[in-house]
Write a structure and sequence with these properties.
Blueprint lengths: L1 H29 L5 H23 L6 H12 L2 H13 L3 H29 L2
Length: 125
């Protein structure tokens, strides 16, 4: 368990650093406005998750999942894990559950953020 936790921590540091550098680079190229950096890391991270899932299964490399999937890709973007879960439901033929998961995740995550902002504004006013 300790070794796996270390893998996740190291991968997370790498992923978070890559996310930061990607954000800085895209901001320098495009400036403020539309959140292109976040959109980019979400798309790239989701693509990377798809590639790694197939690679790991085909090459018996699933032991690298904590480092790559949870660590690097999770640190780069948590959206990649969300995308994998939604796709897995869809692939299993659970299209209704997949749609509900996507809608609930997006709507309730934004609602959670709004609630956190409102509570924090009340506490720290």
């Amino acid at each position: 368990m300790f070794y796996t936790t270390l893998q996740v921590a190291l991968g997370g540091a790498i992923g978070a650093t890559l996310r930061f550098l990607t954000g800085v680079g895209i901001f320098k190229l495009t400036g403020p406005g539309f959140p292109l950096a976040i959109l980019t890391v979400n798309i790239v991270g989701s693509f990377g998750m798809g590639v790694f899932v197939v690679f790991a299964a085909k090459t018996s490399s699933t032991h690298l999942s904590p480092f790559v999937m949870t660590g690097i890709l999770g640190g780069f973007t948590t959206f990649s894990a969300f995308s994998l879960e939604a796709y897995t439901l869809f692939e299993r033929g659970q299209t209704g559950a997949a749609g509900l998961y996507v809608l609930a995740s997006v709507i309730l995550s934004i609602a959670g953020l709004m609630a956190g902002v409102m509570i924090a504004r009340g506490l720290f006013a």
